[in-house]
Amino acid sequence: MAKIQVLLVDDHQVVMEGFKARLDNEANIEVIATANNGDEALKKAEQCQPDVVLMDISMPEMNGIEATRHFRHHFPEIKVLILTMHDNREYILQVMQAGASGYILKEVSAQEMVQAIEAVHQGGRYFCRLVADTLFAAPIVQAEPAEMVLAALSRREETVLRQVALGKSSKKIAMELGISTRTVETHRQNIKHKLNMHSTAELTAYAVKENLI
After folding, report:
1. Distance CA 140, CA 138 (A)
2. What is the separation of C-alpha 25 from the centre of its chain, rounded to a whole number of angstroms?
């Protein structure tokens, strides 16, 4: 089986070398290049075509959020996994809306880091537990138990939510479920209304938190 090729991006050299050493011990992962900022990461990605970019947010010249937008536009086949110390809800939402496939904190174990890389490489989404909890720390979400909210979704809505969380477009979901794209869009709007959420990033984090994916 081919190794998952990773581009590691962080402006702190010692930190980056530590994570590289951690990943170099994994049999199915290979760090093929490193970069110190988003601009350099895009140039390296064009040269080496990694499977996954493991990237920090706070960097000079081009930060991780802006770089993620560029990756989605120029290299949509490359998965971006954010690795940062920031557990701020605004950062998380901005990065996910920019097109990242996952968000983990630098404090996670080596095992979880590998799980996250494998998950996004396979086309899924990954949030570490603290990140998922942070997204749902707002009082408006806490006001109603998760079990009651989930119960309000129909089976079809749960299915659509699961597919949305896996990063699939409405058109692809419609093809797989044998329904129209307009029907999928209606389900998405109903789900957002029932869960009182406004973005795909929030829906994805909710699905992860409730073990729907």
Report:
1. 5
2. 24
Q: Is the pLDDT of residue 144 over 50?
A: no
- Residue type present at position 49: Q
Residue 139 confidence (pLDDT) = 42
Q: pTM of this prediction?
A: 0.69
102 to 68, 93, 131, 155, 171: CA distances (angstroms): 11, 11, 10, 26, 22
